[in-house]
Amino acid sequence: MKDQLKAIREYIENSYGDETARADAIVLLDNLTQAAQFKERQDVIAFHQKFGVPVAPAASFLNPEAYGFRVKFMQEELDEFQEAHSTGDMHGAADALVDLAYVVHGTAHMMGLPWPMLWMEVQRANISKVRATDASQSKRGTALDVIKPAGWVAPDHTPALGTGPWPTLGEQA
Fold it and tell me: Would you list the DSSP string of 93-120?
């Protein structure tokens, strides 16, 4: 699929004479590429549809019941990962990580969050960080960390989420 998308992009870059049309086509292709890369999210959406899980039509906070349930669910999966990892259970650790990702995607879907747009902005900010050269540079105390260099620009989710106020799931007007 990646090779096909690359070929389409090259075709667009080389074939579209009008610069505006070419730019618009590349943006569309890039958006489709991003959407295609979130197959896991599509699986979670299908799961929610099958079981009638409530989903906000736009960015919304969870109501107290849904919030409490989702936080406990994410913590449960994180606890299962910690337990499996500490006991050397690779299958359990892998399963817990996939389950955690499933629950995170599900929570974001329930909240009506535009995941691909949010992901791209976080990726833009994260990829501009640098690797710590020693533990003293890290607020987490490890040279495995990546850190924010001078001039680092935090993610701006305003284009994806607006400026609020945001409703609560089940309380949309």
Answer: HHHHHHHHHHHHHHHHHHTT--HHHHHH
> Confidence band (pLDDT; 50, 70, 90) for 120?
confident
pLDDT digits (tens, 9 = 90+) for 69-110: 999 999 999 999 999 999 999 999 999 999 999 999 999 999
Residue type, 167: P
Residue type, 127: I
Contact at 8 Å (CB) between 22 and 13? yes
- Here the contacts of 151-155 (C-beta below 8 Å, separation 24 or greater) are 152/125, 152/128, 153/125, 153/128, 154/125, 155/118, 155/121, 155/122, 155/124, 155/125
pTM of the predicted model as reported, rounded to 2 decimal places: 0.76
Pair type for strands 146-147 and 130-131 = antiparallel
Amino acid 173: pLDDT: 47
Cβ(60)–Cβ(111) under 8 Å? yes
Six token digits for residue 163: 């400026």
Nearest of 26, 8, 108, 29 to residue 61 by alpha carbon: 108
